[in-house]
Structures are given as C-alpha cells and as structure tokens.
Amino acid sequence: MNEKNQLARPLALPLPTIRRYPVYLRCINEMIAAGETHISSAVVAEKLGLDSVLARKDLAMAGVPGKPRRGYPARELQAAITAALGWDNSTDAVLVGVGSLGNALLGYRGFEEQSLSIAAAFDASPEIVGKTIHGVKVRPMGDLPRLVKRLNIRLGILTVPNAAGQPCADKLVAAGIRGIWNFTSVRLSVPDGVIVQNVDLAQSLAVLSHAISAKR
Amino acid sequence: MNEKNQLARPLALPLPTIRRYPVYLRCINEMIAAGETHISSAVVAEKLGLDSVLARKDLAMAGVPGKPRRGYPARELQAAITAALGWDNSTDAVLVGVGSLGNALLGYRGFEEQSLSIAAAFDASPEIVGKTIHGVKVRPMGDLPRLVKRLNIRLGILTVPNAAGQPCADKLVAAGIRGIWNFTSVRLSVPDGVIVQNVDLAQSLAVLSHAISAKR
DNA sequence: TTTATATCGGTATGTCAATAGCGATATTTT
DNA sequence: AAAATATCGCTATTGACATACCGATATAAA
Q1: What's the confidence (pLDDT) of residue B10?
Q2: Which candidate, A60, A183, B31, B194, has a CA 20 to 30 Å from the CA of B168?
C-alpha cells in the first residue's frame, strides 16, 4: 500500500490543465495584488466562469496542499504554478522573421509575465538586417547558429512567410533549438525531441466562422 | 428506418474536425493546383503527418461521397469544406484596438484565403484616429455602433489592452456583433448567442515552455 | 472475363478529460 | 466546548474523440 501522508502529484500534468494555468495565474496575481493571502478554488472558478470542480482539480495538481475553509496559500500556489510552466527562470528566445507579425511580437510587452525575453532577431532580407526594432538588433540568418549556441538558447519563434517555414525550422533545429513556437501555417517536420507549438490563426478563426455561419 | 441512399452527414461537426479543416483545405488547394482531380485521404494524411483513419473520417464528414480507389472529387470536396467553415461567402469584420497587434492583423494578407476582410478599424486614442493603416481608416469608438449596424457586420476582432477588453466587448455586443475574436488575455463575459474565440498567446506558450523545462 | 487491390464507409473499442458525488477536516460561530 | 459550514481531496461515472477493425465496392491488372 501507499503512504498517503504526502500529496500525490502526478508526474505528467494533463495538457488542458497546462493550457489553463496561465489563466489561473493571472487571476491569482490579481488576488494577491488585492491583498488575499489564500486562494479558494470556488472563488477562482467564479471569477473565471469555470466549473468549480475543474478549478479545484487543476489547482490541486500544482501539488500545494490547501486547507479547508481557507483555500490554497496564495504565494505558494503562485510559485508552484509558475514553476510548473517553467516561468520561474528567465528564458531567452530567438525570433526568426521580422515581418509585420515578428515586429508586433518584438514590441509585445506581455512576455515579461512569462519570463520570456527575445534575445535576438534574424531576417533574410538585407533591407531589414541591421535595423533595431523595439530595442532588438536584426541580424543576418548566417549569425543564427553561432549566437544560439553561445547564448545556449532553447526556444525559437518562427514568424517567416510559409515558404520559408521548413527551411528556417531546419536551421533552428541544426543550431540546437529544443522548441519552436510556429506562427506559420506550415506543418513543420522536426526530429524527435524538438517540440513544436503551432499558432495557426486560420484554425482559430475556423471555429468562429463556422459557428457564426452555421447558426444563421 | 432510415433511407441509406443519402450520405448521413451529422448535424454538428466535431470541434477538432473543424479546427483541422483549414489544414486540410490548404493541402487540397495545393493538390488541385498541382493538377489532381481526386483527393485520397491516405495521401492527405501522409502529407500532413496525420493518422490515415483520422483524415478519412474528417474528409468524410464534409458530406461528399468518395469513390474507392480514386478518392474524393477534388473541387467538390474543396467546396464542401470551404462552405462548412463559412468561408464561401465574404465576411466583413471590424477591428477594435490598433496597437502593434492590431496593426499587424490589418497588414496580414492571409485573410483573403478565409474570405475575411476587415471593413473598419476603431481606436480610443485620438493620436491614432484618422490615420490610415494598410488602407483602412482608423475611426473613433463612437462611430462603432452606427457603422456595424449599417454594414451588418457580425464579426469583431478585439486587439485592445487587457483593461479595455471587457468594455470594448460590451460595445461590440451592444452594436449587434455575433462573434468576437478575442486577442486579449481577458476572459470575456458575453450574453448567450454571442461566440467568443480566444487567441491567448500565453496559453500557447505555456505548453511549449512547460515541455521544454520539464524534459531537462 | 476474372482476380487483385486500394480506398471508402460503418461499427466497435480504448483512452482521456470533464463532471458528479461523497467523505474528511479545519475554521468559524454559537 | 459543541455544532455548523465551507472547502479540500478522492473515487466513480459520463461523454467525446481517436484508434482499430472489417465489410463493400469501384478500378486496375492479369
């Protein structure tokens, strides 16, 4: 039999739970800023419009023991979720493709919350290389391998045109990148061990436009 | 009993299927451009790196009968999926919040593929109002209700700072919008009948950063 | 003409996550 | 000190989707 004193935290968190963690985290941050010392799953669920059981299970997954009638200790819960997301340590990333979207991401201030900082940007176009966008200097693609290795960067942000998607992904992989945040519509093929997270606006829009056109 | 001559298309398509449709559609378009007249689910699955059964089921959901040993008729399948997504008729949308992200979306050329055109843009800041960004004139928020009603616009794109998210969503709803494409991190509360599709970069990044930090 | 085969279409099974229900317990109230 | 209650934490059920399997059929090959 198992000792039941210790809280059993599963080795792998459910993917949907991980996706919801940023939402919880923002809510918890607000509550801490408002002076709360304890976080009740019921209150969080109410604020976010989620089922109370779902919120309780998600928060319990963080591994911090809560107390009946009080909730979870706020700072500990915050720290646990932040750690689960890997946002407790600053992460450097490189951005490839300084078009309009890459430009917007370079200017996005919200990444600080996720401890993400774009350490360098690259582009193939000679007209853009050399310019400084939102404080980041745009470098030629040739500099990518050396810089990624020197700074030990593990995350690449891919914001190039579709045609350049796979070739640039290959370059990132060859340079030693571990994860690619893919903003192109191309289905990247990468070796095992490299993680790709797709942000396909068309997929997101599909759900919305289908629903709107279907309900008429 | 049921007549079985007609292909039974389910009234509601599974959400994951809808999300995959844009991916299939791009693949089908390429194959048509390459001169194919028939689309085999096995070939599509191979190209996209999906399970062949999954692709077959998804394509079958479109309601177009396929032929053994040939596949689905290319143009008909293309038309059916396009219609299922509501991309067969041009859809006008309004964009609220012309910051860096709103700017990038206004300049994004890929929306034509989805028959989406941004008919008008709005912003609260007097410095931006009146300017023309990528061919679209930025109007003051006060003009929103009248213009949405006059052009009978059903889709709103929300790219304002988090603090303005809910108020602006309320204005869109009051103007008669049916769906909101929400790029803020705020969980919007809207009345029944209005659909919200969230594009939360933090949620997407969460999966990636968790995986990268966990596997070390 | 006959045989072989690729692909479709439906049914059954398995897996994962969301929901529901219930007991345990610490805090608050009386 | 005793009773009431809110909240946690566990287990079971439900439901949806992905996967596996199998029969039907039109095309291609022999």
Answers
A1: 58
A2: A183
